[in-house]
Amino acid sequence: MSHYSRPLLTLLFLAVSTLIYGQQGSNNCFTMVAGNDATADGSVIIAHNEDDHGKNLVNWMRVPRKQHNGGETIVVATGAEIPQVETTYGYMWLEMPGMKFADSYINEHGVVIASNACASREDDPQLTDGGIGYWLRRLMAERASTAREAVQVAGRLIETYGYASSGRTYSVADSSEAWVLSAVHGKHWVARRVPDEKIMVIPNYYTIRGVNLDNEAVFMGSDDLISYAHKRGWYDPEEDGAFNFRQAYGHPRSLASDGNIPRKWRGLEMISGKDFEMEAALPFAVKPRKKVHVQDFMEVLSDHYEGTQWDDSQGYEQGDPHSHGVNSICAPHNQYGFVTQLRPYMPVDIGTVMWLAPRRPCIQPYVPWYLGMDELPGDFAQTTPAKALDNHFDAPDNMYQAAPEHAFVQYARFANFVDNHYGELYPKIRPFKVSLQKEMFQKQNALEKKALERYQEQPDKAMQILGDFTRRYLEKTRNFIRKMLPKENPVK
Description:
The chain is an alpha+beta fold. Helix content is 34%, strand content 20%.
């Protein structure tokens, strides 16, 4: 395993990461994207940890397909008025009230969308009518039947209105291919297809390097992406050689942050089995050491640098691993982790499954939520989708107090309790987590076979079979939480 000077890296980057992120690591999302030739089952996979500051809530909701009248418009949070399309697709929506850039989506076609904040160096953005921010991924989910189409939808919106935030990278996938789209403050963007045989790893900085917009099978982006960077003095062909998007458009503090570099390094080493030098240019994507399984991604999302020089908890002997030193992949402000399994050889309702671990991936079993499951558990949503959208930016500061009976609050309180006793409790939690996940994977094939047998003639029954499976294992995880929590602090 490669080594890098801890004291040197910390001295160089601690101050600048605090400057760009406020409190160190307050924006700490982590994503891995795998092409279908890199996975054992031929699925395309997005694995994502959603990390956001504050006492948040996650609502799991389903929004149906809708038909719209001609002349309808959407007024987004920034004030821009966008023409509505005739049909908007249905989707599963992971909504975090009050958060501008935290929601994740899977639409009815199996298009998955997640994102990572990536600060750009743009200081003179061009915006029309205030630009677009929060609504960008929602419109991608509503209007795209493939990942490629989602990128095209986003690109047109960015070029028309401008992106109303410093910068961000959206990971978008369907069962055939995966893309990453990097938006820059204003009207510039670029997207790259993830190679089928490789896995992409992204923390909170741009990772796209070389760009060839003539190769439309692999790249998309703004026509003036390179000329604009040259005009601004961010790129000089004579001095810099080949154009490098992340170097030209990425904010230098973001690219040098110790909230970013170690996490990408760790993800690359875990998935590839190779050594990488942190001070070197880390690759956009790598081939895995072997064809990867869903479970491999779950391990990465649960990681705190165990067994490396970066493990400041020293095997949990110095307290919980989330509150020490450099940000880990599984972080204190993690709200949920998921691994989406997108399989092209099944009906989309059954072949699209999001394995979800609420609040803290290291202590929660990942439970499968199938796209076509009959209904989502009632106490995982605070309200209806329509009301959630209307009130999204009016959320209270402490969502735990605002919705004490919400299922997510149970997971959050459990995570806080475990952090206070991590070294003592984790050895008891780990066997339950591993055992339950093993049980679910062992039963997955039989479950899906049963659902497939009913799918053509009794689709409602097939979807109920999937939903019952999810609800049964959610209840098992919640029963375990109830038993672990002290009686003087019960969670109902």
